[in-house]
UniProtKB/TrEMBL annotation:
Localization: Cell membrane
One GO term of the biological process aspect: transmembrane transport
Transmembrane segments: 28-51, 98-118, 127-148, 179-200, 221-243, 279-299
A Pfam family matched in the record: BPD_transp_1
ABC transmembrane type-1 domain span: 92-298
Protein name: ABC transporter permease
InterPro entries: MetI-like, MetI-like_sf
Amino acid sequence: MSGESASLRSLERDAAARRIRRNWLLSAPALALLLVGASGPLLIVLVYSFLKPGDFSGVIWEPSFNAWFQILFSRDIFDDTVGLADAHLTIFWRSVRLSLSTTLITLLLGLPTAYFIATRSGRQRMFWLFLITIPFWTNLLIRTFAILEMLRNEGIVNNALVDLGLIAEPLQILYTDTAVLIGMSYVYLPLMVLPLYAAIERLDFRLVEAGYDLYANRVQVFRRIILPIIKPGIIAGSILVFVPSLGAYVTPRVLGGGKNMMIGNFIELQFGQGRNWPLGASLSILLLFIVMAALLLYVRVSSREEPHG
């Protein structure tokens, strides 16, 4: 009997091995296409980041680490001394600061919005969700120009403030970091609301009632019951807002007027007027690693939440 059992297990292992090989062969064309289509352009950008810039554009096929050096440091053209690239660091800091601020503002606005929608009845819930998705029907550029019309000196916001007597002269909001922050918060707010709604919808409100029955106040109920349950939604929404905000191009370009650049605008500048393709490529790879780090953080935090349901 033991010999027959061993033979049966051997046959099962062979069959499993053949099934795995067949699956790999069937998926090989799709994997090859994915590898070439997705990794190929990234590989070209990575190679460009280690080359010298051409005289008028493009690259010179000579290996160099100068582009990576230029991200943080600059060399004086007269005495060849090395110092920090203040302009680059300012752009990095502005990008991170505005992206974090956008994430925080959308969270503060999105959480009560998602809670309101999730606590409505079925038909009302669908109606409010429909309203949230309406901005996606319009092109991002058109939405950004609509914000521009509202924020300009003769726009709706300034006219309303002047008519209410709150200010004597129109405020200069357009072409400032404030305008960029307002624009990105408006554009990316739905990306925060939808994951929060999905998390709050799963909330069992009997737990909230149980908390009140045990004499917990509202802050304690939110901190000890609601917040742990909706934390995955908060993290997912924060990632969905922070990542595109960091690489935003259209909104800072239109509302910032080209003076308040972010990383996306800086990269475009290097491939255009700057004619420094290696620096643009190295900045693109750096931005990719920042986004990857944010996603890995999300996966790590999410994996910690799973064992607790």
